[in-house]
Design goal:
355 residues; alpha/beta; Rossmann fold; 2 domains; 6-stranded parallel β-sheet; 12 strands; 15% strand; globular
Length: 355
């Protein structure tokens, strides 16, 4: 069913799940806004990650979904009442399908391999078929769904995040309290959701020592329930360290924007750094570098040790019992990547014309 985009007045984009998923949908939101400068474009996110897109200029409203059935039914009724012309499911999960189906939109759009295909009015072949390549990035996958529906898309579009003044001020106050207001620092995120993506904390401690010898301060962040990782990092590193486990996601975004460099595991925080143009060095284990590498125009490096079983689901290591992929990444390889990125960014800074 062809979509008459010039008569579309409202669009719902459903992108549930994690921090990284949210960041990586921003090129799709930008593409929609470029096509529909005057339309209402809303995005549905999980409530805990929704603050990331507060103030994002490509969307009118960020809808938040909680976990309870009552909340979801209430939200479904609200979505129905907004009378969207088009609804996209950028992920394909059953919860996303429920909200797209319940939207009542004339065009309910997903990929043909999504479960409950019959609930979509428009279902398209895979992103790999759209781009005519066997391996594509998550950003390209999402853009392919829009492109198949007639939205002009560019694979060169990069991730972006809003930086609101109140969050920048909040972070500046924290830096001042830590005595870091005038110091260049590296942002480190030593935690990960899965053991197969978690580089050992003692390795991060050695990298922190290396960075400190280079004259850079180190700030490490994690969530409150990951505080033990930060405690161990402080204990094992000889470098002075500032740690935060209580920052809201927009504050982490603001902090990342002020960092000289990001160093961490493949995680949502790495994508946040990339989206605010902070060069990332990302350590990969079980996950796909083709799909999840930083999607940014600034220099970056992914550090990994190649194994025949990569990528995998990552929930456990079926091949070796222990996740050798992440365990085999050496401290030296990460330090070398850091040095290369620092050299590149220093060269770019010295070559930039004075303002």
């Amino acid at each position: 069913m062809s979509i008459d985009w010039k008569n579309v007045e409202s669009v719902l984009v459903v992108r549930l799940r994690s921090i990284g998923d949210t960041v990586l949908c921003t090129p799709s939101l930008t593409a929609l806004r470029e096509l529909l400068p005057n339309a209402r474009i809303d995005i549905l996110l999980e409530d805990w990650v929704a603050p990331l897109l507060e103030g994002f200029e490509a969307v009118n409203d960020v809808l938040k979904v909680g976990r309870s059935g009552a909340e979801r039914l209430r939200l479904a009724r609200e979505i129905r009442g907004r009378r969207y012309d088009v609804a996209f499911n950028l992920h394909g999960g059953t919860t996303g399908t429920f909200f797209v189906a319940s939207s009542g939109a004339k065009h309910k759009i997903g990929f043909s391999y999504f479960q409950y295909r019959f609930l979509y009015t428009d279902a398209f072949p895979s992103g790999e078929e759209f781009w005519d390549r066997p391996r594509i990035h998550s950003v390209e996958q999402q853009l392919a769904l829009l492109g198949s529906a007639g939205v002009p898309v560019k694979p060169t579009a990069r991730t972006r995040l809003p930086l609101l003044e109140r969050h920048l001020i909040s972070v500046e106050r924290r830096l001042f309290s830590a005595g870091l207001e005038n110091k260049e620092f590296v942002l480190m995120h030593p935690a990960a959701a899965l053991a197969t993506k978690q580089w050992d904390t003692s390795n991060f401690a050695r990298v922190a020592d290396h960075l400190y010898k280079s004259g850079l301060a180190i700030i490490a962040v994690a969530s409150t329930n990951e505080g033990a990782v930060l405690d161990r990092l402080i204990e094992e590193s000889e470098a002075p360290m500032t740690v935060f486990d209580d920052l809201a996601l927009p504050e982490i975004t603001a902090l990342a924007s002020k960092a000289r460099l990001f160093v961490g595991n493949d995680s949502g925080i790495a994508h946040i750094a990339a989206a605010v143009h902070t060069p990332p060095v990302v350590i990969f284990g079980s996950s796909s570098r083709d799909t999840w590498r930083p999607w940014t125009s600034v220099p970056y490096e992914t550090v990994f040790t190649e194994f025949h079983c990569q990528p995998c689901s990552g929930y456990w290591c079926e091949e070796f019992g222990e996740p050798k992929c992440i365990e085999s990444v050496s401290i030296e390889s990460v330090a070398d990547s850091i040095d290369r990125i620092l050299a590149q960014t220093e060269k770019r800074r010295t070559q930039s014309p004075a303002v």
